[in-house]
Write a structure and sequence with these properties.
elongated, 9 helices, disordered N terminus, three-stranded antiparallel sheet, alpha+beta, 3 domains
């Protein structure tokens, strides 16, 4: 009895194996079935394309992601069926998929990427706008500026891939233009802050490049008046304070490299309006030299000047603190070099 049942099961298994279709399901699809899959994908893609155009999506919102995923799924199924089809009309179906479906999925991906990038840009722009409004310059602003700059460049690449001039321009106006506007408000501050930070790194080295440091100080100091015009008073004061500290450090470091007579006293004939008298230490006596200023030295002004004495050129930073114009400014000798 057991032997008969075993034989019958074997026969049934053989019969069931012979009835199974050869290959995968898509290989068995007819032209009509494949055409239906292509038509379905075309219909979904046709609905999707309107959602990625500002002409119909005025608010530039993300497309219906359910529709987007359905379109991708329908495309993948149709593409599989077309690839397996053995029919002379296969090329026509492939052309329809490429022209009417695949292209809209590709454009939708570019549109979604641009919007997602734009939202990152918008968040950074809002953060920068808040820092400017609250006058918070010394914490994070320079890092935020550079992060925003990177995202603007990245957004430009993503925007280039978006289909349709009007849609690209709308995304540009919504995200990139406001970001550029906020960024431009603090561009000078960040430029000077970056220079001062570079100077700090240079001063931390075992061997300091004196002339690089002087260049850093001159460049940043020359931009201070612009900072004073564009930003609250404490912003320029914050930068200037760091610059004065750096000048003081540099003067001590570079002193061993001085090639000419040093000086330790300044006075004036007219409250530093036009004149400055320098008392040079000649080793046993002081020699006074009169120099003329380009313009009056104002309170809290820092100015880097150059003058010559017996064949040497002096680079000095002046910083007037006292409100009494007759009181000599603080000064830091940055370099004394023989004139070649």
């Amino acid at each position: 009895m057991y032997k008969k049942i075993s034989i019958m099961l074997t026969i049934l298994l053989l019969l069931s194996t012979q009835l199974l279709p050869i290959g995968n399901a898509s290989a068995a699809l007819s032209y009509s079935q494949t055409n239906s899959l292509v038509t379905k994908a075309e219909k979904l893609a046709g609905a999707l394309k309107w959602q990625i155009s500002v002409d119909y999506n005025k608010n530039l919102t993300l497309p219906d992601m359910v529709l987007f995923n359905q379109t991708k799924d329908a495309y993948n199924k149709a593409q599989t069926a077309v690839s397996a089809l053995k029919d002379s009309r296969k090329a026509s179906l492939q052309s329809r998929l490429d022209t009417n479906v695949k292209i809209h999925i590709t454009r939708a991906i570019a549109y979604i990427d641009a919007l997602n990038g734009g939202k990152k840009l918008e968040a950074l722009t809002n953060e920068l706008r808040y820092l400017i409004k609250e006058e918070i310059y010394t914490i994070r602003m320079d890092d935020l500026y550079h992060e925003l700059s990177y995202q603007i460049r990245k957004q430009a690449v993503l925007l280039y891939r978006v289909y349709g001039k009007s849609t690209r321009e709308a995304i540009l106006a919504k995200y990139k233009v406001p970001a550029e506007a906020e960024k431009s408000k603090v561009a000078y501050f960040v430029t000077v802050k970056d220079i001062v930070d570079k100077a700090k790194l240079e001063m931390a080295k075992d061997e300091v490049d004196i002339y690089l440091m002087i260049n850093y100080l001159i460049t940043s100091n020359d931009m201070l008046p612009i900072i004073q015009q564009l930003h609250p008073y404490h912003v320029a004061q914050f930068l200037q304070s760091d610059m004065i500290d750096l000048a003081e450090e540099l003067s001590m470091v570079s002193e061993s490299e001085f090639e000419g007579p040093q000086f330790d006293m300044l006075n004036t004939e007219d409250a530093f309006q036009e004149t400055m008298i320098v008392h040079f230490d000649m080793g046993g006596y002081y020699q006074k030299e009169l120099y003329f200023l380009d313009e009056p030295l104002q309170q809290y002004e820092s100015r880097i000047i150059n003058f010559e004495f017996i064949g040497y050129e002096y680079t000095v930073l002046l910083y007037r603190v006292d409100e009494n114009p007759w009181v000599a400014p603080n000064f830091y000798t940055l370099d004394i070099s023989e004139i070649q």
